[in-house]
């Protein structure tokens, strides 16, 4: 098996990967159905309402991040994931029942989005940290890339199938399939061989939250990565909202064409995930180059004159955005001690996904006020600023030093008075 799929040699990871792939297809179907329900059945194409739904899904990621990280480092991650996946499946099932009975109202969708956000707040950092327990430290970067490949391979299928199902039968079947898909990932977790896992030491005693925050404050390299993903996640990665607006209000297309946009963008995202899986170490120059590429690709998408050119522009948008995300994720996971990974990843996911409660309503307001194209244009401007600021910080900040190994790996981004130890936990590769 090639280096790209190295983690699939591990039986536990292979079982988890297959269950997650099925669940990810359902998740994408549910996302498309939810957006279509809000835009066309519960409102008259209200970008603000869709922004509120998106914001409610991600707000708990910010508010509960410190607690979620402490829980992830205190209890077995497999047990936590069984509980969170069950909760997400139940909320999907409730949405399906409300839709098929004709009882769904906008306020109900708001509440369900908030409930999903609460479950996801605990699920996300636990799931991110669980990758290392499935494969061990040598394959973390590969596992992160393959997890992203699973998510984006599902994105090729899920939105397109959802679009066809919605056009033929309405949103109900898409919500039903999403609810059923959670059974696959729960069964995969139950089938894992617990003795073959690589569990991190569980953190006992008080002060876990304070300890996690203090750790990140001492790590400017992690802070730099968090700044980059915050700007991308808050202003650039609102395609769940922007594609719906562009498809319906600019190009006047139906559910099938809207669903196809998600699948087209996934071509680029899946390519990026597979390329990331091939890299033994994440590299900072790859991350910054991808961020600059996303700026250009999203600007082109915002100005695309017709539906098909817009769709083509989504491929490099997906490629560059996913490259930034996987590179930053792997860099953080490789650079922290195993016993701190849950808390650090909770803060990382809070910064990345938690910007959405701020960005989504703002982007929705921009769409209602200035038009759908500006919802993408604002993200392009913001990521350009982030890229320039990150490069400038690295080049001129007096308190930061970059040191490299012969292979070009970035060892530390720390105060120059501190000599780094040649340990894997201190490596953030370039």
Produce a short descriptive summary.
The protein has about 425 residues and is mainly α. About 75% of the residues lie in helices and about 0% in strands.
Number of domains: 1
The gyration radius over C-alpha positions equals 21 Å
Distance between the termini: 26 Å
Strand order of the largest sheet: 1-2
- Write out the CATH superfamily name: MFS general substrate transporter like domains
How many strands appear in the DSSP assignment? 2
* Portion of residues within helices: over 70%
Q: Tell me the number of helical segments per DSSP (H or I, 4 or more residues long).
A: 16
CATH level-two architecture = Up-down Bundle
SSE pattern, N- to C-terminal: HHHHHHHHHHHHHHHHEE
Structure class: mainly alpha
Task: Please give the largest β-sheet.
Answer: 2 strands, antiparallel
CATH topology value:
Growth Hormone, Chain: A
CATH class: Mainly Alpha
* Mean of pLDDT: 82
Low-confidence stretches: 398-430
């Amino acid at each position: 098996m090639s280096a790209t799929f190295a983690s699939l040699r591990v039986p536990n990871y292979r079982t988890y990967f297959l269950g997650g792939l099925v669940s990810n297809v359902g998740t994408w179907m549910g996302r498309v159905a939810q957006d279509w329900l809000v835009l066309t059945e519960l409102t008259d194409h209200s970008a603000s309402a869709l922004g509120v739904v998106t914001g409610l899904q991600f707000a708990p990621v910010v508010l509960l991040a410190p607690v979620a990280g402490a829980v992830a480092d205190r209890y077995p991650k497999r047990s936590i994931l069984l509980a969170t996946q069950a909760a997400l499946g139940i909320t999907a099932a409730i949405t399906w029942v409300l839709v098929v009975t004709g009882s769904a109202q906008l306020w109900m969708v708001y509440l369900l989005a908030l409930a999903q956000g609460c479950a996801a707040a605990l699920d996300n950092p636990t799931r991110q940290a669980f990758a290392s327990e499935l494969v061990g430290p040598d394959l973390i970067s590969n596992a992160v890339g393959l997890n992203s490949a699973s998510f984006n391979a599902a994105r090729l299928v899920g939105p397109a199938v959802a679009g066809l199902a919605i056009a033929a039968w309405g949103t109900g079947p898409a919500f039903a399939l999403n609810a059923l898909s959670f059974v696959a990932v729960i069964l995969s977790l139950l089938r894992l061989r617990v003795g073959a896992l690589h569990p991190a030491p569980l953190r006992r005693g008080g002060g876990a939250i304070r300890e996690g925050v203090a750790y990140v404050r001492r790590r400017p390299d992690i802070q730099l990565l968090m700044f980059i993903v915050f700007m991308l996640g808050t202003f650039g990665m609102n395609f769940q909202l922007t594609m719906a607006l562009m498809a319906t209000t600019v190009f006047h297309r139906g559910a099938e064409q809207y669903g196809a946009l998600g699948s087209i963008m996934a071509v680029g995202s899946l390519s990026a995930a597979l390329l990331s899986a091939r890299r033994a170490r994440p590299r900072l120059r790859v991350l910054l180059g991808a961020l600059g590429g996303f700026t250009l690709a999203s600007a082109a998408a915002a100005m695309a004159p017709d539906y098909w050119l817009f769709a083509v522009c989504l491929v490099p948008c997906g490629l560059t955005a996913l490259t930034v995300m996987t590179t930053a994720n792997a860099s953080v996971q490789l650079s922290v001690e195993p016993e701190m990974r849950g808390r650090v990843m909770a803060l990382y996911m809070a910064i990345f996904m938690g910007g959405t409660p701020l960005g989504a309503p703002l982007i929705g307001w921009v769409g209602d006020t200035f038009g759908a194209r500006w919802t993408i244009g604002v993200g392009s401007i913001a990521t350009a600023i982030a890229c320039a600021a990150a490069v400038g910080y690295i080049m001129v900040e007096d308190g930061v030093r970059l040191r490299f190994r012969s292979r070009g790996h970035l060892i530390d981004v720390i105060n120059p008075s501190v000599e780094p130890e040649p340990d894997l936990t201190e490596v953030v590769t370039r």
